[in-house]
Amino acid sequence: MESIQTLKGQSALVTGADSGIGKGVAIALANAGASVLINYVHNHDAAQEVVNEIKTTGGTAFASHADVSKEEEVQAMFAEMYKQYGTIDILVNNAGLQKDSRFVDMTLDQWNTVISTNLTGQFLCSREAAKEFIRRGVVEGRSKAAGKIICMSSVHEVIPWAGHVNYAASKGGISMFMKSIAQELAPHKIRVVGIGPGAIKTPINKSAWDTPEELAKLLTLIPYNRIGEPEDIGKLAAWLVSDEADYITGTTIFIDGGMTLYPGFADNG
Ligand code: BGC
Fold first, then answer.
1. What's the pLDDT at 92?
2. For ligand 1, atom 9, which residue shows the shortest CA distance?
3. Which atom, in ligand 1's list, is nearest to the CA of 161?
4. Atom 10 of ligand 1: nearest residue by CA position
5. What is the structure's pLDDT at 1?
6. The pLDDT value given to residue 3
7. DSSP state of 205
8. Smallest Cα–Cα separation from 203: which of 88, 85, 97?
């Protein structure tokens, strides 16, 4: 466990926390002292492993199933959260997926699946969390804010992505969703912040890093010349939801080794 427990006494819900970035974030929040709900949709065993890993280091966590695109499942998960931890202090909207296709071949199902999980999922979970933050308000001695919401976005919030228009549209949507609720919720002392990861070594983009050739190609897009790790995102998330970041709301922090710096222009243009 880290020595400074900046999130001690707080409870956090992380969607899609059974793998990848969500797992990294859940572990980082637990290390900072938060009790964490590990949400998963398909892989109970993987979620339970994250719970066990957190418990081994003295943290508190439990696994809870919900498809974030389904209203009743989200509401049931929040009910479970309140049963276990009484309330919620931190929501991390992380669950997301890709269904890639050339635009002209993209099916309505591929479009809807990505928008429902990546964007509607953030709406459903944020609405539940915001209701509880407003009902409960600031708790003296726990956090300066009544609640914190992280919206996991992507560099594709700003970088167009051929062959992935459903995904890029969902991330562009998250940007305005995040800013609009940040504006509406700030008077309630609720902070809403986006995180825009670049290429992070996770199952979602395995084909882009699992051979030396693919990795070399990927690195041409990353001026800092390394792929990111889930821990990189975990550390940022733990800081953003702490009182150290109390004046940050309504903005996306890109964490991408310079991917958004238009590296193609380094020796061109
Ligand atoms: C995508 C990854 C991709 C990265 C950089 C992420 O949002 O999920 O597949 O490697 O952006 O392009």
1. 99
2. 205
3. 12
4. 199
5. 47
6. 54
7. G
8. 97
How far is residue 128's CA from residue 118's CA, in Å, rounded to a whole number?
Answer: 16
Quote the tokens at residue 101: 């296709």
Tally of CB atoms within 10 A around 93: 31
Query: Does residue 167 carry a catalytic annotation?
Result: yes
Of 3.40.50.510, 1.10.10.10, 3.30.420.10, 3.40.50.720, which CATH number belongs to 11-257?
Answer: 3.40.50.720
The binding-site residues of ligand 1, defined as CB within 6 angstroms of any ligand atom, are 98, 154-156, 198-199, 204-205, 208
**CA 100–ligand 1 middle distance (angstroms):** 11
Question: d(Cα 251, Cα 243) in Å, to the nearest integer?
Answer: 16
Write down the pLDDT at residue 4.
Answer: 81
According to the model, what pLDDT value does residue 61 have? Answer: 98
Q: Give me the average pLDDT of each 10-residue run along the chain (269 residues).
A: 81 98 98 98 98 98 98 98 98 98 98 98 99 98 98 98 98 99 99 99 96 97 98 98 98 98 95
Residue in 40, 82, 85, 167 annotated catalytic: 167
Residue with CA nearest ligand 1 atom 5: 199
